[in-house]
C-alpha cells in the first residue's frame, strides 16, 4: 500500500474515536497564517524518505502533487513504483498508474473522512489553525519570512502512533517530518512549487469526480 495512504488510513481509524478539540487562539497560529500563501491551486514535486527503525537505508520515493483548495489533493508517486492517491472531501482513492489495483475509502461509510481531508490539507498548506484541533502547536519565526512548526498530539490515542510532527517553510510548506511512536521517521520535502496555471486541467478535474 502507498506510504501516504497508510498514514491516512491510520489517521482515519484514530479520528473515528478522537473528537476534535477546540483550537486555541494562538499568536503562533496567526504568524504562520500571515506568512503562508493562500493559493487556490498549487503544484509541485516531492521527495520522501522513510527511515525504518533497525534498518540502515531509508525507503525513498518521489513524484508530484496538486493541491486544489476546493477539490482535494492528487499525490502522484513516480519512483520507485508509479501510483496515485487522490484525496477529496468524501473519499480517498489509491491506484496503480497502470490501473492494475485500486483501493477506495468512501466518506459516506467513514464519518471521520472529512477530518482526514482537513489534516492532509493542513499539513501541505501549513494551516496551523486546523492542525491545532488535534495537536499542540509551537511556532518559531525565522528570517526571510521563514517559520518552523512543532506539533505534539493532544490525545493519548494519537500519541500511540505519532510522537510528533514538524513542519518548516516560508510562503509554502517546504518540509514535513513525521515521527512515529515506533521511532520510524518520514521526511517529505516539497520543491518546485508553482501557482500557475491557476485552474485545474481537464485531466486533473476528472480525477476529483
From TrEMBL:
CDD domains: LolA. Keywords: Lipoprotein, Protein transport, Signal, Transport. Residues 1-22 form the signal peptide. InterPro entries: LolA/LolB/LppX, OM_lipoprot_carrier_LolA-like. Pfam families: LolA_3 (PF19574). Monomer. This is Outer membrane lipoprotein carrier protein LolA.
Amino acid at each position: 500500500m502507498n506510504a501516504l495512504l497508510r498514514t491516512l488510513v491510520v489517521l482515519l481509524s484514530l479520528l473515528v474515536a478522537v473528537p476534535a478539540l477546540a483550537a486555541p487562539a494562538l499568536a503562533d497560529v496567526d504568524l504562520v497564517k500571515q506568512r503562508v500563501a493562500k493559493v487556490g491551486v498549487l503544484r509541485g514535486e516531492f521527495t520522501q524518505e522513510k527511515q525504518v527503525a533497525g534498518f540502515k537505508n531509508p525507503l525513498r520515493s518521489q513524484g508530484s502533487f496538486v493541491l486544489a483548495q476546493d477539490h482535494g489533493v492528487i499525490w502522484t508517486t513516480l519512483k520507485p513504483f508509479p501510483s496515485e492517491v487522490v484525496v477529496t472531501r468524501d473519499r480517498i482513492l489509491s491506484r496503480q498508474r497502470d490501473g492494475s489495483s485500486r483501493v477506495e475509502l468512501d466518506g459516506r461509510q467513514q464519518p471521520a473522512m472529512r477530518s482526514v481531508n482537513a489534516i492532509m490539507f493542513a499539513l501541505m498548506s501549513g494551516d496551523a489553525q486546523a492542525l491545532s484541533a488535534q495537536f499542540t502547536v509551537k511556532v518559531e519565526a525565522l528570517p526571510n519570512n521563514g517559520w518552523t512548526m512543532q506539533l505534539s498530539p493532544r490525545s493519548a490515542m494519537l500519541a500511540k502512533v505519532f510522537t510528533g510532527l514538524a513542519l518548516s517553510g516560508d510562503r509554502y510548506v517546504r518540509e514535513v517530518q513525521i515521527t512515529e511512536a515506533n521511532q520510524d521517521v518520514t521526511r517529505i520535502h516539497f520543491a518546485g512549487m508553482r501557482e500557475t496555471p491557476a485552474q485545474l486541467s481537464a485531466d486533473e478535474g476528472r480525477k476529483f469526480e
